[in-house]
Design goal:
2-enoyl-CoA Hydratase, Chain A, domain 1; alpha+beta; globular; 6-stranded mixed sheet
Length: about 375
């Protein structure tokens, strides 16, 4: 049977990695498969696919890593759709932190933001079912669902208050880049909401639409940006980092790598980068590079602290896939990010992350730019 052959391929792959020691260690898997078919009283009710998925899921779960995931075919398709910035759900990025389903950030213009979901919120239950012991993908799949349906979240906010929030799922479209020119200040403002394959091109389009010869400075807003693709962060950071590393990575399969800037053609004007508790992953790559190279300052609050790299390491013949944490990344100077985050150069007490004129983060950034208006920034 196709599924039986597929199970054999997985087992052979595991054995090959471990050599003779692996052969002895994992041989019980194939034996258990045969025993189930010959001894289990309801063996006919269990498909080979179910056994295969269970074996793979068990090994992934044993890692204890919330970011490593086994995707059955349908889940992998939904995950790929989410990378394009469009899916059906409530519009928030979540993670597992200290065993809890935790909100990284709500996305702007989504039901989650409108309902008051906050970075750092602990989602205790979904539709009345406790999330204790859930994997990241279990939580994601339960919160997402068909457009127009509802989901009720039991949420504990960072201040300790607990409330039940019912949200109506909708089609979520995340616009990667938004921009506007603050003419009175002669400042270009760009908000990056996610790092996908189009982010760098959209960022470049936004930057070159500003009257560069007139600008006093730039504000890049990375607040509540949960991250995305590493290469997109490198490309985006290259608009501001003249030369040198944007990020350094380390992992057992690829050793140590350095991702250099692709070169910056923009004038090095005063640059303020807005960050907060929801700035994570690829956003921290960009912010850390700008901070380490002295190309600008970080304004706001300490970032989330997600410094791990995930890759699709295996595609199954039936369309499933395995996403594995393969390494950790560091800022150009070698600072770790995982569980540490980035500390802003100009701290601001927590305020609205709207980008509007009454925004204290933006106000602090503009005040800093006024002091250095049109003064070139030098690298170090």
């Amino acid at each position: 049977m196709l599924r039986r052959a597929l199970l054999g391929l997985i087992l052979i792959g595991v054995v090959a990695v471990g050599g003779s020691q692996g052969d002895a260690l994992f041989s019980p898997l194939s034996q258990i498969y045969q025993i189930i078919h010959s001894h289990y009283y309801r063996a006919a009710d269990v498909t080979d696919t179910q056994l295969l998925y269970g074996a793979i899921q068990g090994m992934i779960d044993a890692l204890g890593d919330p970011y490593s995931t086994f995707f059955p075919p349908e889940e992998y398709t939904r995950w790929q759709d989410s990378l394009s910035g469009e899916y059906s759900g409530v519009g928030m990025e979540i993670t597992i932190r200290d065993g809890r389903v935790t909100v990284v950030s709500p996305l702007p213009g989504t039901p989650a933001e409108a309902a008051g979901i906050l970075p750092g919120d602990w989602i205790q239950a979904v539709d009345g079912e406790s999330t204790e012991g859930w994997t990241l993908e279990q939580a994601s799949m339960r919160i997402r669902g068909p457009e127009g349906t509802t989901v009720t979240l039991t949420v504990q906010h960072p201040d300790g208050t607990v409330e039940e929030i019912t949200l109506v799922r909708q089609r979520i479209h995340v616009e990667a880049v938004r921009s506007r020119y603050l003419a009175e200040e002669r400042v270009g403002y760009v908000r990056i909401l996610r790092f996908d394959f189009e982010t760098a091109a959209l960022l470049g389009k936004a930057l070159y639409a500003f009257p560069l010869q007139e600008l006093s400075g730039l504000v890049i807003d990375l607040r509540n940006n949960p991250g995305g693709i590493l290469s997109a962060a490198v490309e985006a950071a290259s608009f501001f980092v003249d030369q040198g590393a944007v990020v350094r990575t380390r992992g057992p399969s690829f050793g140590e790598r350095s991702y250099p800037s692709r070169g910056n053609a923009l004038p090095n004007l005063p640059l303020a980068v807005l960050v907060n508790e929801g700035t994570a992953s690829a956003s921290e790559i960009m912010a850390g590079a700008i901070q380490d190279h002295g190309m600008g300052v970080l304004v706001g609050r300490k970032t989330f602290g997600k410094g791990l790299i995930q890759e699709i390491v295996m595609r199954l013949p039936d369309g499933g896939a395995i996403k594995l944490t393969t390494g950790e990344y560091f800022t150009p100077s070698g600072r770790p990010v995982q569980d540490v985050g980035l500390t802003p150069d100009i701290p601001v007490e927590k305020g609205p992350a709207t980008g509007d004129g009454d925004d204290p983060d933006l106000g602090a950034a503009l005040a800093w730019i006024r002091e250095r208006a049109a003064q070139p920034v030098s690298t170090h």
